[in-house]
Amino acid sequence: MSIRIYSIDQQIYGQFDEGRLVEQKPIGFPGEGSAVERVGTLFYWAWFQAKEDAFLPPHPHRGFEIISYLLNGHINHQDTLGNERSLSTGSLQVMQTGSGVQHSEKYEKGTSGFQIWFEPFLGEANYATPTYSDYQVQDFPVETKDGCTIKSIVGGTSPVQLVADAKMWDVTISAGESFEMMVPDGYSIAGLGIEGQSNWQIHNETRLVEPQEFVVCEGDEIGLLRVGAGVLGDSRLILIQVPSVLPYPSYKEVKIRLKVNKEK
Predict the structure, then answer these.
(1) Share of the chain above pLDDT 70, in %
(2) Please, what are the domains in the chain?
(3) Which terminus of the chain has fewer Cβ atoms in its 10 Å neighbourhood, N or C?
């Protein structure tokens, strides 16, 4: 197992609505130049922040399972499935985009959170009926243990269950305490520091992670991951567990095959 850290400079930045909405992307879209192109079923990860009230006009998606998780603020959502919904701090929306859906979003000034794409097997997902669902902060199970607060966001005990193999947690570690989890054989943990420094340790390797840095703990064997907060303050992180290797042809591979077939 190894721990790889990607600084802010190795991530990609984007903006929408004339800079009213900005994004830090630990994992950008193919061709955008981010140091990490994907981790298993984890295809894309953006940390968005609304500098002012912002609007994303209707735009299409297909195949991918897309979640938006709010750290704070407010979003109004509309889509071609007929949904008009509001999301606030700590809530989450899930679009299983299937055969295709369009949506638009309005962001209140000060809103921040994550849009994360997971890749199911697109050979099936592209033909599935698209769905939308959302969950409020009180819908998620929260465990408090040994100075840590663990909110299950996706998979496990969470009400959010995806087709793609993935689990996700929002973890706060009190100053001087630590959080431990067993990383299964063949799986990786992708993490993003939100607040405070943290020390990551697995086997004999220990690394210091600063806020906004992206971490990939890649496993080829079972191992105990220990993440500790410094003595000067709490640490908050988002952790995502996915297979280290995508277990079916990827979006990129499918596009290449289609292009080759068209050229024949």
Answers:
(1) 95
(2) 10-139 (2.60.120.10), 142-243 (2.60.120.10)
(3) C
